[in-house]
Amino acid sequence: MKSSSSSTTQTATQEKQQNPQTKVSPRTQTKGIDKHIKDYEAIIGIETHVQLSTLTKAFCGCPYNYGAQPNTSICPVCMGLPGALPVLNSKVIEFAVKLGLALNCKLSFNSKFDRKQYFYPDLPKGYQISQFDIPIASNGYVDLDLPVEFGGGHRRFGITRVHMEEDAGKLLHSGNGRYLATLSHLLQVDLNRAGVPLLEIVSEPDMRNGIEAAEYAAEIQRVVRYLGISNGNMQEGSLRCDVNVSIRPIGQSEFGTKVEIKNLNSFSSVNRAIDFEISRQVLLHSQGQGNSIVQETRLWEEGAQKTVTMRKKEGLSDYRYFPEPDLPEVILKKEYVNSIQNSLPELPEMKRRRYENMGLSMQDVLFLANDINGADVKLATNWIMGDIAAYMKNEKVSINDIKLIPRELAELIASIKGGTISGKIGKEIVDPAEIEKMVDKVLSENPNQLEQYRAGKTKIQGYFAGQVMKLSKGKANPGLLNKILQQKLNASS
Amino acid sequence: MLSTLQQPPRSLSRIPLHLKPLRSFFTVASASASQDQSSPPSSQILTLRRALLCRQTTATQLAESYISRLSLTEPHLHSFLHISDTLLRDAQLIDRKIEKGEDVGPLAGVLVGVKDNICTADMPSTGGSRILENYKAPFDATAVRRVKEKDGILIGKTNLDEFGMGSTTEASSFQVTANPWDLSRVPGGSSGGSAAAVSARQCMVSLGSDTGGSVRQPASFCGVVGLKPTYGRVSRFGLMAYASSLDVIGCFGTSVADTGILLHVISGHDRFDATSSNREVPDFSSQFTSINLVESKPLKGLKVGLIRETLEDGVDNGVKSAISGAASHLEELGCTVTEVSLPSFSLGLPAYYILASSESSSNLSRYDGVRYGNQVFAEELNALYNDSRAKGFGPEVQMRILMGTYALSAGYYDAYYKRAQQVRTLIRKSFKDALDDNDILISPVAPSAAYKIGEKKNDPLAMYAGDIMTVNVNLAGLPALVLPCGFVEGGPVGLPVGLQMIGAAFDEAKLLKVGHIFEQTLQGCRFVPPIVADDLAYSQR
Fold first, then answer.
1. A280: domain range?
2. Does A177 touch chain B (CB under 8 A)?
């Protein structure tokens, strides 16, 4: 699966190096290294954590609501109290299987949970329940299309594995955040998030630049949203990306030293952080300082638009994994997997290919497939056959005369379906019969004003128009309204 | 009937206790038993139930008698870390129920001791560890909840080796418990407090936990019945984890019947423990055939395998002869006893210590001083962890955490943890084969009877070696019943020795049936320690 995209990837890398660079805020560092950048190839892999939108946590009955008061959704199990035991929420398995299938993975019909052990105040048990050597899904891939403005092109990125694990709590830093120095005063722990189920998705190191990585992450977001297993919200941390970046001179087969980047809160920061990091590493190489690239975790600083050292890795951490004895093995039955397979919704890639086959432009295809709500064919049909047809009939215009383009209609429908606006607001009332009814109502409720008007005080037409508009909650088409109002006012005079 | 069994000397002269009579209890609940030192043990639970329902006594009277008994015995034994302060109130509630003619549960008025690594909402739960000193759990363990639901009364929390790690109860952070048969000896461990309390009649039955023999070995040392159920039979929810894949909550009683009644109450699936079994729980009490109905060969046709590897070098002669006496007794009851060999038996001990230490190193990580328990103030995170844990854990626990951390470390995992798991598979298989050919297997519980306090404290390997008979059963996850079968020389009146009966998974019923018949027909042995016998003698006057 990796080989299928390697040649196209290379060309895309070159044409793309210019693109994001013009987009990213100008950085002195990147200037003057463009001539070096083409001599190097970047190798990028991504670990994505997706927080599952199950009703309760992975191993206890606590609900999780983002933004709740600290430590209001905790119990003996997720607090790691003595004697408490985890019991698996079966939805976690269901969601993992869904994602595994959606990412074209092989499922492990017999997998298990393991304990990953380390001490940290946000980890109540002193170990994280995770999956180590037998992830529930592995060896998959994801297909996507790069945005047209970045040169376009189809990509297939390998998925190494998908595994289930639990989230940790959060440290609340007060004061200056130097919590390690003055621990007891400044450090507090919020365990609301502890035990919330996650799926960790590890990609193959198949990406070659920031845009590819950002698009990979965006596709993961689309997939989890289409599947309904996560809200995929990066700001809330429901979807977190840690990227690994290394570079090597083109033609070299061994990988360079990889650097991990954290604190990426949007797709654009994924893009910019990676391109910054590539430039940084290329610069070091070109200055003969390649060996000062060390294995470390770097933090993306959004304000400064650069990566800085967070911690250097001192060898490999030893997490002392061993099988979690409190949980039985995870055994998938064929029928169970089949039933999930059969219930999978149309996924973004299938939708894009379908639209493409319908003859839509790639730009429209990508837009329409971007959101699961963005292209509800049935709703679109309703709009076209209903309100839009009525408008065309009324205005005696053809569909070609309407300025509404497919993308705007899709946006409108998405906004309504997503609840951003109500269906009523979405509609300007263009049905003459409906407006006529409202005009009649206003006229019959204001007999005095009507008399005045008919007595010659025609200036108060504006008053009637205002009342009708109010009745329609501001949605009556003003042209239609005035036309009908005038007809009515003058009808019997 | 059994000339091979050594009789306990009857002299009580050296018992340093002068106990008040406990009339309400002993005249009603134990009168029949106390009349005759050689009559078989009767169910205290059933006797009490009859007495309560016939209004011959009340739960309050019983509780009062136990309180006065505790005040006399506890200064010598130190079985308990906490005594319930709601004991009388709980008893009064039961009496009120009975007065009103309401149904009462099978444990109505029964005073139950609970090992202190089992969480209780109304009393502290320390696990015997300084790091949890004064810790109060916000919930009852499932086993405790079930005891309460069946109208049992918690009398207190019993002493143990810290977090269950030890075989003598000397590794408790708080106190050393004495053996009721000889106050200079250990009660065994780690459930030493629960065993001593039942043996000394400080409570009627008690809950313990068994990871590598922690119910069975103290049962043997203290001369009481101890039952380690099949792994998964009893919910572990609320049991402070030592080694999760081996831990099981078990029962102590002075008769097989009482142990079985308690097991029935606490058994069954629990939605809070994913490793608890969905298997149906049979009514164990149906196994307790009345002695009058017992025919001459009540166990005719039962195939018993005597595990050869448990009677080899290193086992005291006294223990060997007690076990061969027990085997003869089983033969007299109609069983066919043959020697069986479990070739991987000797591998069990190292495998056990690797797996148990590995799991414990992980399970004890939560005691970090951050959220609960004793925290040593520090300005820096690692110092907080290090100091809290260094001051909170005793040396035995620290040693096992270190061993387990080592065994799970990168580069050692395959050589230790993984190989130990392979051994575990072999042991399971060999037990299964042996139990395909036999109804039950028998063995000693420990190579010796109770030894002196301090004797093995500085020789952990010698102490660990004492677990050889029991750890294999945990590795295989099987049920085992220990019941007193004889005595060896030692102490003022001799020291009890237990017989271990091992059954197939989830076949506790068979063990209880065989055990009940065994104890009802074992003549000439009365397993009442001097500390109680003295009291009984006094109450007879």
1. 3-343
2. no
- Mean pLDDT is lowest, of A411-420, B235-244, B414-423, B495-504, for A411-420
Whether A150 is in a domain gets the answer: yes
Q: Where are the domains of chain B?
A: 23-299+479-540
B115 given a catalytic annotation: yes
My answer on whether A46 and A187 are in the same domain is yes
Chain B CB within 8 Å of residue A86 CB: yes
Give the predicted TM-score (pTM) of the model: 0.84
Cβ contact (<8 Å) for A82 and B362? no
Please answer whether residues B340 and B305 qualify as being in contact, where contact means their C-beta atoms are separated by less than 8 angstroms. Answer: yes
Q: Which residues of B touch A127 (CB under 8 A)?
A: 362, 365
User: How far is residue A480 from each of residues A450, A468, B129, B231, measured CA to CA in Å?
Assistant: 20, 11, 83, 79
Which among B135, B274, B413 has the least Cβ separation from residue A85? B274
> What's the pLDDT tens digit per position in B144-202?
999 999 999 999 999 999 999 999 999 999 999 999 999 999 999 999 999 999 999 99
Measured CA to CA, the distance from residue B347 to residue B354 in angstroms comes to 11
The verdict on A220 and A321 lying in the same domain is yes
Which three-class secondary structure state does DSSP give residue A294? Answer: coil
Contact residues for A324 (Cβ-Cβ < 8 A; gap 6+): A86, A112, A113, A114, A115, A129
Does residue A273 sit in the same domain as residue A142? yes
Does A321 share its domain with A448? no
Give the other-Cβ count within 10 Å of B280's Cβ. Answer: 9
Residue A180 to residue B380, Cβ atoms within 8 A? yes
How many residues can be counted in chain B?
541
Average pLDDT of the segment spanning B27-47: 62
B305, B338 in Cβ contact below 8 A? Answer: yes
In this prediction, residue B339 has a pLDDT band, given cuts at 50, 70 and 90, of very high
Residue in B135, B238, B362 nearest the CB of A115:
B362
Query: Complex ipTM, two decimals?
Result: 0.91
- Chain A residues whose beta carbon lies within 8 Å of the beta carbon of residue B114: none
What number is the average pLDDT over the span A460-469? 86
Active site residue B388: no
For the B23-299+479-540 domain, the top CATH level (class) is: alpha beta
Chain B closest CA to A43's CA: distance in Å?
A: 28
> Which residue is catalytic, options B173, B190, B199, B255?
B190
